[in-house]
From TrEMBL:
It comes from Belliella aquatica. This is Phosphoglycerate mutase. The keyword Hydrolase applies. Keywords: Hydrolase. The keyword Protein biosynthesis does not apply. Pfam families: His_Phos_1.
């Protein structure tokens, strides 16, 4: 297996993020003005990296977040298997007290090892990881060595758990923020090492509304 350097970022802010409304894979929201600022800041900070290929999911907020690199005509590909988890009937719904309690209950079930437990109408962690593995295997099987991947918060936690051989019960150890960066190296044996953990250095000084 070829060694690789992976820059893994979460998408920029959407109005759903700003209002605390669940998006998931069923809401294809665009970036808001803050998200566009975050995307520009990330591009300015990392435009000198010689990315050989750029990947995004099937949802527009990830493609918009790395549009600056696409404008450089870097080869790119949409990997729908990296889409966000489906939150089922809770997608697009404001987070009420009751729904927040249910969400916390679900996270507790996951942390206790019930990884087949899915939110009503949605996906379980085991379901998501199964498709994430298909998606990342597609990427790792390609020859490019320096790559950029833009995806989603919860799916990102699960992907990092998969890459680092972490038990999924502890996925929340991988923090994230809008346009936060994880930089990883993969050696010839397929072992990953995290060089930057949820880095937001490029976002400092941004005036968000």
């Amino acid at each position: 297996m070829l060694s690789k350097k992976i820059y893994l970022v979460r998408h920029g802010q959407t109005d759903y993020n700003l209002k605390g409304v669940v998006q998931g894979s069923g809401i294809d929201a665009p970036l808001n003005s803050n998200g566009q600022k975050q995307a520009k800041a990330f591009f300015e900070a990392y435009k000198q990296v010689d990315f050989e290929k750029v990947y995004y999911t099937g949802l527009q907020r990830t493609k918009q977040s790395i549009q600056g690199f696409l404008d450089l005509n870097i080869p790119s590909e949409s990997i729908i298997e990296l889409n966000e988890i489906s939150w089922g009937k809770y997608e697009g719904q404001p987070m009420t007290h009751e729904e927040n309690e249910y969400y916390l209950h679900m996270l507790k079930r996951w942390s206790e090892g019930d990884l087949d437990y899915a939110i009503a109408g949605g996906e379980s962690p085991n379901m998501v990881v199964k498709r994430l593995k298909i998606g990342i295997d597609k990427i790792l099987g390609q020859p490019e060595k320096v790559i950029l991947i833009c995806m989603h918060g919860r799916a990102m936690r699960m992907l990092l758990s998969l890459l680092m051989n972490y038990d999924l019960r502890f996925m929340d150890e991988f923090k994230h923020q809008n346009l936060g960066l994880y930089e990883l190296n993969m050696d010839d044996s397929g072992t990953f090492k995290i060089l930057k953990y949820n880095s937001g250095e490029h976002l400092r000084g941004l005036e968000l509304t």
